[in-house]
Amino acid sequence: MSATFVGMPAFPDAAKTALADSQLRGNLAHATGTIRGKRAQVVGEVSEWEELRRAGAAIKDNALHNLDEHLLRLERSLTERGATVHWARDAEEACGIVAGIALDNGIDELVKVKSMATQEIGLNESLAERGIAAVETDLAELIVQLGDDLPSHILVPAIHRNRAEIREIFLRRMASAGRPAPDDLTDDPAELAAAARSHLREKFLSARMAVSGANFAVADTGTLMVVESEGNGRMCLTLPEILVSVVGIEKVVPSWDDLDVFLQLLPRSSTGERMNPYTSTWTGVTPGDGPQEMHVVLLDNGRTRALADEVGRQALRCIRCSACLNVCPVYERTGGHAYGSVYPGPIGAILNPLLRGVGHDEQVDSLPYASSLCGACFEACPVRIDIPEVLVHLRSKVVDAHRGQAPKPEAVAMKAASWMLADARRLGPLERFAGVAGRLLTRISRRSAPGGRRVLGSLPGPGARWTTARDMPAPPAESFREWWRRTRVERSES
Protein backbone atom coordinates (compact mmCIF):
# COMPACT_ATOMS: atom_id res chain seq x y z
CA MET A 1 0.00 0.00 0.00
CA SER A 2 1.28 3.47 -0.86
CA ALA A 3 1.95 6.18 1.68
CA THR A 4 -0.85 8.47 2.89
CA PHE A 5 -1.08 11.95 4.36
CA VAL A 6 -2.48 10.64 7.65
CA GLY A 7 -0.38 11.79 10.61
CA MET A 8 1.39 14.60 8.74
CA PRO A 9 2.72 17.37 11.00
CA ALA A 10 1.36 20.91 11.00
CA PHE A 11 2.47 23.09 8.11
CA PRO A 12 5.23 25.05 9.93
CA ASP A 13 7.04 21.84 10.93
CA ALA A 14 6.56 20.17 7.55
CA ALA A 15 7.66 23.32 5.71
CA LYS A 16 10.83 23.59 7.78
CA THR A 17 11.83 20.07 6.69
CA ALA A 18 11.02 20.83 3.03
CA LEU A 19 13.01 24.06 3.03
CA ALA A 20 16.12 22.13 4.05
CA ASP A 21 15.89 20.02 0.85
CA SER A 22 17.83 21.95 -1.80
CA GLN A 23 17.08 19.32 -4.48
CA LEU A 24 13.35 19.74 -3.88
CA ARG A 25 13.56 23.52 -4.10
CA GLY A 26 15.51 23.30 -7.33
CA ASN A 27 13.02 20.89 -8.91
CA LEU A 28 10.09 23.07 -7.89
CA ALA A 29 11.62 26.34 -9.05
CA HIS A 30 12.42 24.90 -12.48
CA ALA A 31 9.03 23.23 -13.00
CA THR A 32 6.80 26.05 -11.73
CA GLY A 33 8.84 28.63 -13.61
CA THR A 34 8.38 26.71 -16.86
CA ILE A 35 4.62 26.35 -16.36
CA ARG A 36 4.24 30.04 -15.43
CA GLY A 37 6.00 31.09 -18.61
CA LYS A 38 3.82 28.90 -20.84
CA ARG A 39 0.65 30.10 -19.12
CA ALA A 40 1.58 33.77 -19.45
CA GLN A 41 2.17 33.35 -23.16
CA VAL A 42 -1.18 31.72 -24.03
CA VAL A 43 -3.20 33.89 -21.64
CA GLY A 44 -1.66 36.97 -23.22
CA GLU A 45 -3.15 35.91 -26.56
CA VAL A 46 -6.72 36.29 -25.25
CA SER A 47 -7.81 39.93 -25.21
CA GLU A 48 -11.00 39.17 -23.28
CA TRP A 49 -9.30 37.07 -20.57
CA GLU A 50 -10.80 39.07 -17.70
CA GLU A 51 -14.28 38.75 -19.20
CA LEU A 52 -13.77 34.98 -19.44
CA ARG A 53 -12.68 34.85 -15.78
CA ARG A 54 -15.80 36.73 -14.71
CA ALA A 55 -17.99 34.50 -16.88
CA GLY A 56 -16.47 31.35 -15.38
CA ALA A 57 -17.03 32.65 -11.84
CA ALA A 58 -20.63 33.59 -12.64
CA ILE A 59 -21.43 30.17 -14.14
CA LYS A 60 -19.97 28.40 -11.12
CA ASP A 61 -21.79 30.67 -8.66
CA ASN A 62 -25.08 30.10 -10.44
CA ALA A 63 -24.57 26.35 -10.31
CA LEU A 64 -23.70 26.46 -6.59
CA HIS A 65 -26.65 28.70 -5.68
CA ASN A 66 -29.03 26.25 -7.36
CA LEU A 67 -27.05 23.08 -6.67
CA ASP A 68 -30.02 21.01 -5.49
CA GLU A 69 -31.91 21.58 -8.73
CA HIS A 70 -28.92 20.93 -10.98
CA LEU A 71 -27.94 17.73 -9.18
CA LEU A 72 -31.42 16.27 -9.42
CA ARG A 73 -31.52 17.13 -13.12
CA LEU A 74 -28.09 15.53 -13.56
CA GLU A 75 -29.26 12.37 -11.81
CA ARG A 76 -32.35 12.21 -14.02
CA SER A 77 -30.34 12.74 -17.21
CA LEU A 78 -27.79 10.09 -16.27
CA THR A 79 -30.43 7.54 -15.35
CA GLU A 80 -32.36 8.12 -18.59
CA ARG A 81 -29.17 7.31 -20.51
CA GLY A 82 -28.45 4.02 -18.75
CA ALA A 83 -26.12 5.06 -15.95
CA THR A 84 -26.55 4.08 -12.31
CA VAL A 85 -26.27 7.03 -9.91
CA HIS A 86 -25.00 6.63 -6.33
CA TRP A 87 -24.93 9.32 -3.63
CA ALA A 88 -22.02 9.29 -1.17
CA ARG A 89 -22.06 11.44 1.95
CA ASP A 90 -18.40 10.84 2.80
CA ALA A 91 -15.22 9.03 1.79
CA GLU A 92 -16.18 5.77 3.47
CA GLU A 93 -19.46 5.52 1.58
CA ALA A 94 -17.85 6.40 -1.75
CA CYS A 95 -15.04 3.85 -1.35
CA GLY A 96 -17.56 1.21 -0.30
CA ILE A 97 -19.64 1.81 -3.42
CA VAL A 98 -16.67 1.48 -5.79
CA ALA A 99 -15.34 -1.59 -3.99
CA GLY A 100 -18.78 -3.21 -4.02
CA ILE A 101 -19.06 -2.79 -7.80
CA ALA A 102 -15.63 -4.35 -8.31
CA LEU A 103 -16.27 -7.28 -5.96
CA ASP A 104 -19.71 -7.98 -7.45
CA ASN A 105 -18.02 -8.40 -10.84
CA GLY A 106 -15.07 -10.48 -9.59
CA ILE A 107 -12.51 -7.78 -10.37
CA ASP A 108 -9.21 -7.69 -8.49
CA GLU A 109 -7.39 -5.08 -10.63
CA LEU A 110 -8.67 -1.91 -12.28
CA VAL A 111 -7.22 1.08 -14.10
CA LYS A 112 -7.68 4.70 -13.10
CA VAL A 113 -7.81 8.06 -14.78
CA LYS A 114 -6.08 10.82 -12.79
CA SER A 115 -8.66 12.03 -10.27
CA MET A 116 -8.33 14.40 -7.33
CA ALA A 117 -11.67 13.22 -5.91
CA THR A 118 -10.51 9.61 -5.65
CA GLN A 119 -7.26 10.73 -4.03
CA GLU A 120 -9.25 12.87 -1.59
CA ILE A 121 -11.25 9.85 -0.38
CA GLY A 122 -8.24 7.50 -0.30
CA LEU A 123 -9.79 5.14 -2.83
CA ASN A 124 -6.61 3.27 -3.79
CA GLU A 125 -5.79 2.44 -0.16
CA SER A 126 -9.38 1.41 0.57
CA LEU A 127 -9.47 -0.89 -2.47
CA ALA A 128 -6.11 -2.42 -1.52
CA GLU A 129 -7.53 -3.37 1.88
CA ARG A 130 -10.21 -5.34 0.01
CA GLY A 131 -7.70 -7.08 -2.26
CA ILE A 132 -8.28 -4.87 -5.30
CA ALA A 133 -5.32 -3.23 -7.05
CA ALA A 134 -5.91 0.22 -8.57
CA VAL A 135 -3.38 1.10 -11.29
CA GLU A 136 -2.72 4.79 -11.92
CA THR A 137 -2.35 5.40 -15.65
CA ASP A 138 -1.36 9.08 -15.67
CA LEU A 139 2.42 9.17 -16.05
CA ALA A 140 3.07 11.40 -13.03
CA GLU A 141 0.58 9.46 -10.90
CA LEU A 142 2.27 6.22 -11.96
CA ILE A 143 5.63 7.61 -10.82
CA VAL A 144 4.14 8.53 -7.44
CA GLN A 145 2.47 5.14 -7.07
CA LEU A 146 5.50 3.06 -8.03
CA GLY A 147 7.68 5.12 -5.70
CA ASP A 148 5.33 4.63 -2.70
CA ASP A 149 5.28 8.40 -2.71
CA LEU A 150 2.69 11.13 -2.23
CA PRO A 151 1.46 13.60 -4.86
CA SER A 152 2.76 17.13 -4.41
CA HIS A 153 0.96 19.08 -7.15
CA ILE A 154 -2.58 19.08 -8.53
CA LEU A 155 -1.54 18.99 -12.18
CA VAL A 156 1.94 17.43 -11.95
CA PRO A 157 1.87 15.09 -8.93
CA ALA A 158 5.54 14.12 -9.35
CA ILE A 159 6.80 17.69 -9.78
CA HIS A 160 9.21 17.11 -6.88
CA ARG A 161 11.02 14.34 -8.81
CA ASN A 162 13.69 14.81 -11.47
CA ARG A 163 14.53 12.54 -14.40
CA ALA A 164 17.25 10.60 -12.61
CA GLU A 165 14.95 9.82 -9.69
CA ILE A 166 12.18 8.67 -12.04
CA ARG A 167 14.56 6.31 -13.86
CA GLU A 168 15.57 4.70 -10.56
CA ILE A 169 11.92 4.24 -9.56
CA PHE A 170 11.06 2.58 -12.88
CA LEU A 171 14.05 0.22 -12.73
CA ARG A 172 13.40 -0.70 -9.11
CA ARG A 173 9.62 -1.04 -9.00
CA MET A 174 8.07 -1.49 -12.43
CA ALA A 175 8.70 -5.25 -12.66
CA SER A 176 6.81 -5.99 -9.45
CA ALA A 177 3.72 -4.23 -10.81
CA GLY A 178 3.72 -5.62 -14.36
CA ARG A 179 5.89 -5.23 -17.45
CA PRO A 180 9.44 -4.31 -16.32
CA ALA A 181 11.41 -1.32 -17.50
CA PRO A 182 14.22 -2.02 -20.03
CA ASP A 183 17.54 -2.82 -18.38
CA ASP A 184 19.29 -0.14 -20.43
CA LEU A 185 16.77 2.57 -19.55
CA THR A 186 18.27 6.06 -19.42
CA ASP A 187 16.84 9.25 -17.94
CA ASP A 188 15.93 10.64 -21.36
CA PRO A 189 12.28 11.80 -21.12
CA ALA A 190 11.29 10.03 -24.33
CA GLU A 191 12.69 6.71 -23.04
CA LEU A 192 10.99 7.13 -19.68
CA ALA A 193 7.67 7.82 -21.40
CA ALA A 194 8.12 4.81 -23.68
CA ALA A 195 8.79 2.53 -20.71
CA ALA A 196 5.63 3.77 -19.00
CA ARG A 197 3.63 3.34 -22.21
CA SER A 198 4.70 -0.28 -22.61
CA HIS A 199 4.00 -1.00 -18.95
CA LEU A 200 0.53 0.53 -19.07
CA ARG A 201 -0.52 -0.91 -22.43
CA GLU A 202 -0.83 -4.35 -20.86
CA LYS A 203 -2.99 -2.89 -18.10
CA PHE A 204 -5.31 -1.12 -20.54
CA LEU A 205 -5.84 -4.25 -22.64
CA SER A 206 -6.56 -6.55 -19.70
CA ALA A 207 -8.63 -4.27 -17.44
CA ARG A 208 -12.35 -4.98 -17.16
CA MET A 209 -13.08 -1.95 -14.97
CA ALA A 210 -11.93 1.65 -14.88
CA VAL A 211 -12.40 4.46 -12.38
CA SER A 212 -12.40 8.12 -13.31
CA GLY A 213 -13.32 11.50 -11.96
CA ALA A 214 -14.78 14.29 -14.07
CA ASN A 215 -13.77 17.86 -14.73
CA PHE A 216 -17.38 18.79 -15.45
CA ALA A 217 -20.82 17.16 -15.33
CA VAL A 218 -23.53 18.66 -17.54
CA ALA A 219 -26.92 18.57 -15.84
CA ASP A 220 -29.04 18.97 -19.00
CA THR A 221 -27.59 16.01 -20.90
CA GLY A 222 -25.97 13.81 -18.24
CA THR A 223 -22.60 14.24 -19.96
CA LEU A 224 -19.34 13.82 -18.06
CA MET A 225 -16.07 15.31 -19.29
CA VAL A 226 -12.38 14.65 -18.65
CA VAL A 227 -9.59 16.75 -20.14
CA GLU A 228 -6.05 15.35 -20.23
CA SER A 229 -2.80 15.44 -22.17
CA GLU A 230 -1.56 11.87 -22.49
CA GLY A 231 -4.39 9.73 -23.88
CA ASN A 232 -4.45 7.42 -20.87
CA GLY A 233 -7.84 8.83 -19.91
CA ARG A 234 -9.26 8.04 -23.35
CA MET A 235 -8.03 4.44 -23.02
CA CYS A 236 -9.63 4.03 -19.60
CA LEU A 237 -12.91 5.58 -20.71
CA THR A 238 -13.37 3.43 -23.81
CA LEU A 239 -11.76 -0.02 -23.36
CA PRO A 240 -13.07 -1.55 -20.08
CA GLU A 241 -16.50 -3.10 -19.70
CA ILE A 242 -17.33 -1.17 -16.53
CA LEU A 243 -16.74 2.52 -15.84
CA VAL A 244 -17.19 4.12 -12.42
CA SER A 245 -16.87 7.91 -12.16
CA VAL A 246 -16.46 9.57 -8.75
CA VAL A 247 -17.60 13.17 -9.15
CA GLY A 248 -17.68 15.94 -6.55
CA ILE A 249 -21.13 17.52 -6.45
CA GLU A 250 -19.62 20.94 -7.17
CA LYS A 251 -18.52 19.79 -10.66
CA VAL A 252 -22.01 20.18 -12.11
CA VAL A 253 -22.70 22.89 -14.70
CA PRO A 254 -26.20 23.59 -15.98
CA SER A 255 -25.78 23.24 -19.75
CA TRP A 256 -23.43 22.17 -22.51
CA ASP A 257 -23.01 25.81 -23.58
CA ASP A 258 -21.30 26.57 -20.24
CA LEU A 259 -18.39 24.34 -21.25
CA ASP A 260 -17.35 26.87 -23.91
CA VAL A 261 -16.00 29.20 -21.22
CA PHE A 262 -14.22 26.54 -19.18
CA LEU A 263 -12.57 24.89 -22.18
CA GLN A 264 -10.85 28.22 -22.82
CA LEU A 265 -9.94 28.89 -19.19
CA LEU A 266 -8.79 25.46 -18.01
CA PRO A 267 -6.08 24.42 -20.50
CA ARG A 268 -4.46 27.85 -20.56
CA SER A 269 -4.41 28.02 -16.77
CA SER A 270 -3.23 24.46 -16.17
CA THR A 271 -0.85 23.19 -18.85
CA GLY A 272 -0.31 26.47 -20.69
CA GLU A 273 -1.98 25.09 -23.84
CA ARG A 274 -4.68 26.60 -26.02
CA MET A 275 -6.64 23.37 -25.70
CA ASN A 276 -6.05 19.98 -24.16
CA PRO A 277 -4.85 17.23 -26.51
CA TYR A 278 -7.63 14.94 -25.25
CA THR A 279 -11.10 16.17 -24.31
CA SER A 280 -13.28 13.14 -23.64
CA THR A 281 -17.02 13.28 -23.10
CA TRP A 282 -19.38 10.39 -22.41
CA THR A 283 -23.12 10.32 -22.01
CA GLY A 284 -24.56 7.13 -20.57
CA VAL A 285 -24.27 3.69 -22.13
CA THR A 286 -24.17 3.03 -25.89
CA PRO A 287 -24.77 -0.64 -26.84
CA GLY A 288 -21.70 -2.13 -28.49
CA ASP A 289 -19.55 0.96 -27.99
CA GLY A 290 -17.46 1.66 -24.89
CA PRO A 291 -18.28 0.53 -21.34
CA GLN A 292 -21.55 -1.35 -21.09
CA GLU A 293 -22.02 -0.68 -17.38
CA MET A 294 -21.68 2.88 -16.10
CA HIS A 295 -21.85 4.11 -12.51
CA VAL A 296 -21.60 7.71 -11.26
CA VAL A 297 -20.84 8.35 -7.58
CA LEU A 298 -21.88 11.89 -6.62
CA LEU A 299 -19.60 12.81 -3.72
CA ASP A 300 -20.30 15.26 -0.90
CA ASN A 301 -17.51 14.66 1.66
CA GLY A 302 -17.71 18.12 3.19
CA ARG A 303 -18.83 20.08 0.15
CA THR A 304 -22.19 21.01 1.66
CA ARG A 305 -20.26 22.20 4.71
CA ALA A 306 -18.21 24.48 2.45
CA LEU A 307 -21.33 25.60 0.60
CA ALA A 308 -22.86 26.81 3.88
CA ASP A 309 -19.91 29.18 4.44
CA GLU A 310 -20.87 32.46 2.75
CA VAL A 311 -17.26 33.60 2.36
CA GLY A 312 -15.62 30.23 1.79
CA ARG A 313 -18.08 28.74 -0.69
CA GLN A 314 -16.29 30.46 -3.57
CA ALA A 315 -13.60 27.78 -3.18
CA LEU A 316 -16.09 25.34 -4.74
CA ARG A 317 -15.68 27.22 -8.02
CA CYS A 318 -12.23 25.58 -8.29
CA ILE A 319 -11.63 23.76 -11.58
CA ARG A 320 -8.38 22.15 -10.33
CA CYS A 321 -6.13 23.97 -12.80
CA SER A 322 -3.27 24.49 -10.28
CA ALA A 323 -2.51 28.02 -11.50
CA CYS A 324 -2.45 29.25 -7.91
CA LEU A 325 0.26 26.73 -6.99
CA ASN A 326 2.50 27.79 -9.83
CA VAL A 327 2.56 31.46 -8.79
CA CYS A 328 2.68 30.95 -5.02
CA PRO A 329 6.05 31.86 -3.43
CA VAL A 330 5.27 29.66 -0.43
CA TYR A 331 4.44 26.58 -2.50
CA GLU A 332 7.49 27.06 -4.72
CA ARG A 333 9.77 26.78 -1.70
CA THR A 334 8.00 24.12 0.37
CA GLY A 335 6.36 21.86 -2.21
CA GLY A 336 3.03 20.11 -1.84
CA HIS A 337 3.79 17.52 0.82
CA ALA A 338 4.08 20.20 3.52
CA TYR A 339 0.35 20.90 3.16
CA GLY A 340 -0.50 17.37 4.30
CA SER A 341 -3.23 16.78 1.73
CA VAL A 342 -3.88 15.87 -1.89
CA TYR A 343 -4.93 19.53 -2.29
CA PRO A 344 -1.72 21.53 -1.78
CA GLY A 345 -0.85 25.15 -2.33
CA PRO A 346 -3.17 28.15 -1.87
CA ILE A 347 -6.33 26.29 -2.90
CA GLY A 348 -5.48 23.46 -0.52
CA ALA A 349 -4.92 25.95 2.29
CA ILE A 350 -8.59 26.94 2.05
CA LEU A 351 -10.25 23.83 0.61
CA ASN A 352 -9.03 21.39 3.25
CA PRO A 353 -10.29 23.44 6.24
CA LEU A 354 -13.59 24.10 4.46
CA LEU A 355 -14.20 20.43 3.67
CA ARG A 356 -13.00 19.05 6.99
CA GLY A 357 -13.85 21.85 9.41
CA VAL A 358 -11.53 23.62 11.85
CA GLY A 359 -10.86 23.36 15.56
CA HIS A 360 -10.22 19.62 15.82
CA ASP A 361 -6.96 18.97 13.91
CA GLU A 362 -3.75 20.96 14.38
CA GLN A 363 -2.56 20.15 10.86
CA VAL A 364 -5.78 21.44 9.24
CA ASP A 365 -5.85 24.52 11.48
CA SER A 366 -2.31 25.43 10.40
CA LEU A 367 -3.15 25.65 6.70
CA PRO A 368 -4.87 29.09 6.57
CA TYR A 369 -1.59 30.50 7.89
CA ALA A 370 0.47 28.88 5.10
CA SER A 371 0.44 32.05 3.03
CA SER A 372 2.02 35.49 2.78
CA LEU A 373 -1.31 36.93 1.50
CA CYS A 374 0.54 38.40 -1.49
CA GLY A 375 -2.54 37.94 -3.72
CA ALA A 376 -0.78 36.30 -6.67
CA CYS A 377 -3.15 33.32 -6.41
CA PHE A 378 -6.24 35.50 -6.93
CA GLU A 379 -4.69 37.18 -9.95
CA ALA A 380 -3.94 33.79 -11.51
CA CYS A 381 -7.20 32.03 -10.66
CA PRO A 382 -9.30 31.55 -13.83
CA VAL A 383 -12.56 31.61 -11.83
CA ARG A 384 -11.59 34.52 -9.56
CA ILE A 385 -11.51 32.74 -6.22
CA ASP A 386 -10.36 35.39 -3.74
CA ILE A 387 -8.07 33.03 -1.86
CA PRO A 388 -6.51 35.72 0.39
CA GLU A 389 -9.98 36.78 1.54
CA VAL A 390 -10.91 33.20 2.39
CA LEU A 391 -7.58 32.63 4.16
CA VAL A 392 -8.17 35.60 6.47
CA HIS A 393 -11.74 34.43 7.04
CA LEU A 394 -10.57 30.94 7.96
CA ARG A 395 -7.91 32.30 10.30
CA SER A 396 -10.68 33.99 12.25
CA LYS A 397 -12.63 30.73 12.33
CA VAL A 398 -9.59 28.87 13.66
CA VAL A 399 -9.20 31.47 16.43
CA ASP A 400 -12.92 31.30 17.26
CA ALA A 401 -12.81 27.50 17.38
CA HIS A 402 -10.18 27.62 20.14
CA ARG A 403 -11.85 30.24 22.33
CA GLY A 404 -12.39 29.01 25.86
CA GLN A 405 -9.31 26.79 25.76
CA ALA A 406 -5.97 27.49 27.42
CA PRO A 407 -4.58 30.57 25.63
CA LYS A 408 -1.59 30.17 23.35
CA PRO A 409 1.55 32.28 23.91
CA GLU A 410 0.58 34.50 20.97
CA ALA A 411 -2.82 35.23 22.55
CA VAL A 412 -1.18 36.05 25.88
CA ALA A 413 1.25 38.42 24.14
CA MET A 414 -1.58 40.17 22.27
CA LYS A 415 -3.58 40.53 25.49
CA ALA A 416 -0.57 42.07 27.25
CA ALA A 417 0.02 44.44 24.33
CA SER A 418 -3.62 45.49 24.40
CA TRP A 419 -3.40 46.26 28.12
CA MET A 420 -0.20 48.25 27.67
CA LEU A 421 -1.35 50.25 24.64
CA ALA A 422 -4.71 51.12 26.18
CA ASP A 423 -3.28 53.58 28.72
CA ALA A 424 -0.72 56.34 28.08
CA ARG A 425 0.46 56.15 31.68
CA ARG A 426 1.63 52.60 31.04
CA LEU A 427 2.84 53.15 27.47
CA GLY A 428 5.03 56.19 28.20
CA PRO A 429 7.54 54.45 30.49
CA LEU A 430 7.72 51.52 28.08
CA GLU A 431 8.59 53.82 25.19
CA ARG A 432 11.39 55.44 27.18
CA PHE A 433 12.77 52.03 28.17
CA ALA A 434 12.54 50.81 24.54
CA GLY A 435 14.50 53.83 23.35
CA VAL A 436 17.32 53.25 25.83
CA ALA A 437 17.39 49.49 25.16
CA GLY A 438 17.23 50.03 21.42
CA ARG A 439 20.21 52.40 21.40
CA LEU A 440 22.21 49.93 23.47
CA LEU A 441 21.35 46.91 21.31
CA THR A 442 22.00 48.87 18.11
CA ARG A 443 25.54 49.69 19.27
CA ILE A 444 26.15 46.06 20.13
CA SER A 445 24.77 44.58 16.89
CA ARG A 446 26.31 47.17 14.53
CA ARG A 447 23.88 46.00 11.82
CA SER A 448 22.10 48.10 9.25
CA ALA A 449 19.42 47.29 6.69
CA PRO A 450 19.39 48.53 3.08
CA GLY A 451 19.16 52.29 3.05
CA GLY A 452 21.21 52.64 6.24
CA ARG A 453 18.27 51.90 8.55
CA ARG A 454 19.53 50.57 11.87
CA VAL A 455 18.28 47.15 12.90
CA LEU A 456 18.71 44.96 15.94
CA GLY A 457 20.51 41.63 16.06
CA SER A 458 18.89 38.49 17.41
CA LEU A 459 16.44 39.10 20.22
CA PRO A 460 16.57 36.90 23.30
CA GLY A 461 13.93 34.37 24.35
CA PRO A 462 10.76 34.03 22.23
CA GLY A 463 11.86 37.02 20.15
CA ALA A 464 14.61 34.90 18.61
CA ARG A 465 12.02 33.08 16.46
CA TRP A 466 11.16 36.40 14.85
CA THR A 467 14.67 37.73 14.26
CA THR A 468 16.06 34.51 12.75
CA ALA A 469 14.12 35.30 9.58
CA ARG A 470 13.42 39.06 9.76
CA ASP A 471 15.13 42.34 10.52
CA MET A 472 13.89 43.95 13.73
CA PRO A 473 13.95 47.75 13.34
CA ALA A 474 15.74 49.49 16.17
CA PRO A 475 13.43 51.64 18.34
CA PRO A 476 13.85 55.37 17.66
CA ALA A 477 16.13 57.26 19.98
CA GLU A 478 13.25 59.57 20.78
CA SER A 479 9.60 58.60 21.08
CA PHE A 480 6.82 60.66 19.54
CA ARG A 481 5.66 61.78 22.98
CA GLU A 482 9.17 62.98 23.85
CA TRP A 483 9.49 64.76 20.52
CA TRP A 484 6.12 66.42 21.02
CA ARG A 485 6.99 67.68 24.49
CA ARG A 486 10.38 68.93 23.33
CA THR A 487 9.12 70.76 20.26
CA ARG A 488 6.18 72.31 22.12
CA VAL A 489 8.56 73.64 24.78
CA GLU A 490 10.89 75.02 22.11
CA ARG A 491 8.00 76.78 20.36
CA SER A 492 6.63 78.23 23.61
CA GLU A 493 10.07 79.55 24.62
CA SER A 494 10.62 81.13 21.23
Automatic annotation (TrEMBL):
Keyword Electron transport: yes
Domain LUD, residue spans: 73-299
4Fe-4S ferredoxin-type domain ranges (all copies): 315-385
Pfam family, one: LUD_dom
Protein name (database record): Lactate utilization protein B
This protein's UniProt keywords: 4Fe-4S, Electron transport, Iron, Iron-sulfur, Metal-binding, Repeat, Transport
Residue span, Lactate utilization protein B C-terminal domain: 398-487
Keyword Zinc among record annotations: no
